[in-house]
Amino acid sequence: MNDWFILSSGLLAALTAVVHLIAGGKDVAAPLLQSSLDEVVKLTLYACWHLVSVCLVLSSLALLSNGIGLVNSPPMVAFISALWILFGVVFLVITVGVAKPQGLFRLPQWILLVPVGLLGLYGIA
Q1: Would the pTM count as exceeding 0.90?
Q2: Total count of domains within the chain
Q3: Distance, CA of 64 to CA of 10 (rounded, Å)
């Protein structure tokens, strides 16, 4: 296990969580709450935004814990890394499949999600 790659994965994950909380709160969550969507749909999406927040924060803490040696769990790192890669793939598929005219940067979340997962997997390889 290469702790430097796992630590890098955790640091990038923490940065991603902070960006999600600050920029996502301003650019996604706040406009969502002000939208005219059905109340159930709106609140469900808002709850999902918070679920993602919890996932990003806790997984970054788990990666950081492994990276600094508090925890030594390659299966945990592998699981979290796979989640982050798959989260990135979801954004890529939606961007390429649905938001085609705007290109890959219409939903740029994959730019942070995929490297977190790759760094984590490389760290346990």
Answers
A1: yes
A2: 1
A3: 5
Give the domain extent around 42: 3-124
Say which DSSP state 72 is in: -
- pLDDT for residue 95 is more than 70: yes
- Give Cα 10 distance to the centre of its chain: 11
d(CA 95, CA 78): 26
pLDDT at 116: 98
- Is the Cβ–Cβ distance between 120 and 80 less than 8 Å? yes
Query: In the chain, count of helices (H) and strands (E)?
Result: 5, 0
Q: Does pLDDT of 52 surpass 90?
A: yes
Question: 6 with 60: CB under 8 angstroms?
Answer: no
User: 113: exposed, middle or buried (C-beta count within 10 Å: 0-12, 13-18, 19+)?
Assistant: buried
101: which DSSP letter?
G
What number of residues does the chain have? 125
> How far is the C-alpha of 9 from the C-alpha of 28, rounded, in Å?
25
Cβ neighbours of residue 71 closer than 8 Å, sequence gap 6 or more: 62, 65
